[in-house]
Design brief:
The chain has 273 residues and is α/β, with parallel strands linked by helices. The protein has 8 helices and 13 strands. Its main location: cytoplasm.
C-alpha cells in the first residue's frame, strides 16, 4: 500500500508513524469538528500524518438500548464536512455490503470491523469501491491468518489495504496485544496498532464494555518500539459522557503529551535504523 493514495494525507515526508484518531462514534457535528480541530493542530505540530476517525453507526453493541448513531446519512455528511473543513482524510467502519458504496461516497478509508473481517462478501464490497481498506484483525484470529483477509482485497485488484491489530481475546473479559504479531502482519500490509480497543474489557455483566485508558500510552510505546506503521486511537473531550466506548478512550486533553512522547520514540527508532 502507498500512503500517498490516501487523499489529503499530509506530513508524509516526516517518516513519523501515521495516526487514525477521533471519537468512537459521530454524535453530532459540533463534537466532530471540535475533536478534529484539536487533533489536527497537534498532529501538524508534530508532523504526524493524520486520518480523522468516526463511526457513522455502531452495529456491534452489547445491549439493544445502546447508542447506535444519529442516522447514517447525517453522520456521513458530518464526516465529509470534517474532511472539507480541515482538508483531512477520513475513515469509518462498515458492517453490511450495502454500507460500502454508501460510505465510499463520503470517506477516504473503509474499515472492516474485527468481528467481520472474515466476511468475504463485505471485504470484497469494500475493496471494489477502490477506496483504501483497513482490516481490523479479529480478536479470535492469529496474525498469520490475516494474510488471507489481505489477499481478498488484493484479488479485487485493489492494492490499497492495511491491517489494524486491536488485541486478542484473553479469557472472557480481557484483551492482550501479542507484539510478536506486528512484524508478521507487516509482511502482508502496513500494520497499525489500535491502542484503545486493545485495552477493552468486554462482556461485562452491566452490558457496558470496560477498559484501561491508563495503559494507552504504555501499549502505544511498545507498538512504536516494535515498528508499527501507524496507530489507531479513540479520543474525546468528555469520555465519561461519550455515547460509545467511553471507558477505553483517551481524554483529548492528554493527547498532545502522549503523541509528543511517541514521536520522540519514533525518532529514536528511525536513528537506529
Amino acid at each position: 500500500m502507498d500512503l500517498n493514495a490516501i487523499p489529503k494525507l499530509k506530513n508524509l515526508e516526516s517518516n513519523n508513524f501515521f495516526l487514525l484518531a477521533g471519537p468512537c462514534a459521530i454524535e453530532g457535528e459540533d463534537m466532530a469538528l471540535r475533536i478534529a480541530e484539536k487533533v489536527i493542530a497537534i498532529t501538524d505540530k508534530l508532523s504526524i500524518p493524520y486520518i480523522f476517525k468516526g463511526s457513522f453507526k455502531k452495529a456491534n453493541r452489547s445491549r439493544i438500548d445502546s447508542f447506535t448513531g444519529i442516522g447514517d446519512e447525517k453522520a456521513l455528511k458530518i464526516l465529509k464536512k470534517v474532511s472539507e473543513t480541515f482538508n483531512v482524510p477520513t475513515v469509518t467502519d462498515i458492517h453490511e455490503i450495502s454500507d460500502a458504496e454508501m460510505a465510499a461516497a463520503y470517506v477516504d478509508v473503509l474499515q472492516i470491523p474485527a468481528f467481520l473481517v472474515r466476511q468475504t462478501d463485505l471485504v470484497v464490497a469494500a475493496a471494489n469501491t477502490g477506496k483504501v481498506v483497513n482490516l481490523k484483525k479479529g480478536q479470535f484470529m492469529s496474525p498469520e491468518s490475516m494474510k488471507h483477509a489481505v489477499t481478498k482485497v488484493l484479488d479485487c485488484k485493489n492494492q490499497q489495504v492495511m491491517i489494524t491489530d486491536r488485541g486478542t481475546m484473553f479469557g472472557y473479559q480481557d484483551m492482550i496485544v501479542d507484539f510478536r504479531g506486528i512484524p508478521t502482519m507487516k509482511q502482508f500490509a502496513p500494520t497499525v496498532l489500535d491502542v484503545t480497543h486493545s485495552l477493552q474489557q468486554p462482556n461485562q455483566t452491566s452490558g457496558v464494555t470496560g477498559g484501561r485508558p491508563d495503559m494507552i500510552e504504555t501499549i502505544a510505546r511498545a507498538g512504536i518500539a516494535t515498528g508499527v506503521d501507524g496507530l489507531f486511537m479513540e479520543t474525546h473531550f468528555d469520555p465519561a459522557n461519550a455515547k460509545s466506548d467511553g471507558a477505553n478512550m483517551l481524554h483529548l486533553d492528554y493527547l498532545e503529551k502522549v503523541l509528543t512522547n511517541l514521536t520522540a520514540i519514533r525518532q529514536t527508532i528511525n536513528n537506529l535504523d
